[in-house]
């Protein structure tokens, strides 16, 4: 019996032609792989059959970077600009390459919310970063203006499998991106350079010709993604000034690349973003104080630090610096990503490297405080943004701040200024402000975290150590810090029954269960706070004042039927700082 290799070429090609009509590329490929003779006989038929529709060879070559296969596929008739449906192939021949492609592009079923992922071989090669394949495809006639759909996470519902996605929404719901955009999105610098060298426009990344202005430029996206190498490459080309000053609308705000840097997504490394800021500053436009105020109000203190140090905001007066100091010290309840002045309905993200953890937040706050004082901010100023005006120490001690953050900030202020301001123009001391903030009812807002007996210990300790714990000081209303505590307790007990549950007064002691429980909590925690103040001030209060306040405290306990007992843990905590 004659072997397969001994059959005439004509018969073998008839077999191959029959397989081609059945669109059985798997069998045809198996025959071509049997031997060198089989490869010589069937390989051309395999490529020609493959090229008759969606060329698997071309797609596979683009995904794996096989330049010779790219050339063979196109030579045998493959459409170099064929748009593939990636994720749910309409042709069974695409399935072998599906694993390669979907390893880098997540696949969801098609539907109104998840359309097909579509792109050409050039898009796939760009995503994979195969520069030689990109070069060859362009040389074979692939269009660098071809649009792709849903191949990258840059849409309002973008997947986060790659973190350089364009997460703002000035573009279409499902934008059509060109290969140049994919090079930025996937961080492929050399591929980006290859596309530009072969004629791709630096400024056009979107494929929808009807609304080109709604797409970011490659510089805007590279700045947003934190890709310094691509930013540097773009700025080395003619037209750098116009590109660096071009704006894009982000929820009603005209944002330059310099502003997009701190808003963006991408890797968590902060240094490339600093480098981008310094590079963009060379071309302008520089930012005004509003950008810094927004950063401080949203607690993105690292953003303000990087902008100032990069030279992005050179025109800052002493008054502006002092106002920034206020925003840096003040606790803001608004979410840190809000850009609009009124809190806004459209959150704009600051990059995660500026707020990944409370530790980063506090380190950036400290760095910004030192930088502002170094640049001329008056840390002993009164801040008229509040009534009555407050001082830096007052803001740092406010109970809304995290304990650790408050202590660090207080210590930093005390280190920065030899003689910190002890009181404001209304006669209120730092302790006045702290106690008043802790005992003032708060309506219409969420409560401050529930009171713990140890909350003021560290703050009182720092103030006492520096001679600022003036518990006997009287403000312009004739009130001492003790008076604020007693008034708050009495007012709460008198008014509790008249307050409806929907209008409950929130305060630093938290919200407790029924009326009796709430009153008892106020009695207990209010008088415990008095005990803590007396104990911390035992080295600073004169004897007559101390005895008078202790008598008043004992009388209050008697009025409450001696139901209040001082918590021993507070005394033990104070003993560590104020040994007898």
UniProtKB/TrEMBL annotation:
InterPro entries: Ankyrin_rpt (IPR002110), Ankyrin_rpt-contain_sf (IPR036770), Multifunctional_regulatory (IPR050745). This is Ankyrin repeat-containing domain protein. The keyword NADP does not apply. It comes from the Eukaryota. It comes from Chaetomidium leptoderma. PANTHER family: ANKYRIN REPEAT AND SOCS BOX PROTEIN 2, MYOTROPHIN. Coiled coil: none annotated. It holds the Pfam family Ank. ANK repeats lie at residues 179-207. The keyword Oxidoreductase does not apply. SMART domains: ANK (SM00248).
């Amino acid at each position: 019996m004659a072997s397969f290799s001994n059959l005439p070429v004509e018969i073998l090609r008839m077999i191959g032609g029959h397989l081609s009509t059945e669109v059985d590329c798997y069998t045809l490929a198996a025959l071509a792989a049997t031997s060198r003779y089989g490869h010589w006989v069937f390989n051309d038929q395999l490529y020609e059959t493959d090229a008759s529709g969606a060329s698997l060879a071309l797609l596979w070559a683009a995904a794996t970077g096989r330049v010779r296969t790219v050339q063979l596929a196109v030579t045998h008739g493959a459409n170099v600009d064929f748009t593939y449906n990636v994720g749910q192939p309409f042709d069974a021949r695409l399935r072998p390459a599906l694993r390669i492609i979907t390893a880098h592009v997540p696949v969801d079923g098609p539907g109104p919310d998840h359309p097909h992922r579509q792109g050409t071989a050039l898009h796939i090669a760009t995503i994979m970063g195969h520069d030689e394949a990109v070069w060859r495809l362009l040389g074979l006639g692939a269009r660098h203006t071809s649009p792709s759909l849903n191949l990258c996470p840059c849409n309002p519902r973008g997947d986060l499998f790659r973190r350089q996605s364009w997460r703002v929404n000035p573009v279409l719901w499902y934008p059509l991106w060109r290969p140049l955009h994919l090079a930025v999105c996937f961080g492929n610098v050399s591929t980006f350079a290859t596309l530009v060298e072969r004629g791709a426009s630096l400024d056009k990344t979107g494929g929808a010709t009807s609304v080109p202005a709604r797409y970011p430029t490659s510089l805007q996206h590279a700045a947003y993604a934190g890709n310094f190498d691509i930013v540097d490459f773009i700025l080395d080309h003619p037209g750098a000034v116009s590109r660096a000053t071009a704006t894009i609308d982000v929820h009603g705000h005209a944002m330059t690349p310099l502003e997009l840097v701190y808003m963006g997504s991408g890797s968590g490394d902060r240094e490339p973003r600093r480098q981008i800021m310094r590079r963009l500053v060379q071309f302008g436009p520089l930012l005004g104080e509003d950008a810094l105020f927004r950063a401080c109000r949203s607690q993105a203190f690292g953003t303000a630090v990087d902008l100032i140090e990069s030279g992005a905001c050179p025109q800052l007066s002493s008054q502006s610096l002092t106002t920034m100091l206020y925003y840096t010290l003040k606790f803001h309840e608004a979410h840190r990503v809000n850009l609009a002045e009124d809190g806004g309905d459209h959150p704009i993200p600051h990059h995660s490297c500026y707020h990944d953890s409370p530790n980063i937040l506090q380190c950036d706050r400290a760095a910004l405080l030192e930088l502002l004082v170094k640049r001329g901010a008056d840390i002993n100023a009164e801040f008229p943004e509040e009534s009555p005006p407050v001082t830096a120490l007052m803001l740092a001690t406010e109970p809304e701040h995290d304990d650790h953050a408050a202590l660090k900030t207080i210590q930093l202020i005390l280190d920065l200024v030899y003689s910190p301001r002890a009181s404001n123009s209304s006669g209120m001391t730092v302790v006045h402000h702290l106690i008043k903030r802790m005992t003032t009812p708060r309506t219409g807002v969420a409560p401050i975290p529930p009171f713990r007996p140890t909350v003021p210990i560290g703050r009182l300790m720092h103030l006492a150590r520096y001679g600022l714990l003036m518990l006997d000081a009287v403000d312009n209303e004739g009130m001492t810090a003790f008076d604020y505590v007693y008034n708050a307790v009495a007012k709460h007990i008198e008014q509790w029954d008249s307050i409806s549950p929907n209008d409950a007064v929130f305060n630093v002691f938290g919200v407790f269960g029924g009326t009796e429980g709430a009153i008892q909590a106020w009695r207990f925690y209010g008088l415990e706070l008095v005990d803590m103040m007396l104990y911390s001030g035992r080295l600073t209060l004169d004897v007559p004042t101390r005895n008078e306040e202790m008598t008043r405290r004992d009388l209050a306990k008697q009025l409450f039927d001696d139901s209040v007992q001082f918590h021993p843990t507070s005394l033990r905590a104070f003993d560590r700082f104020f040994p007898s």
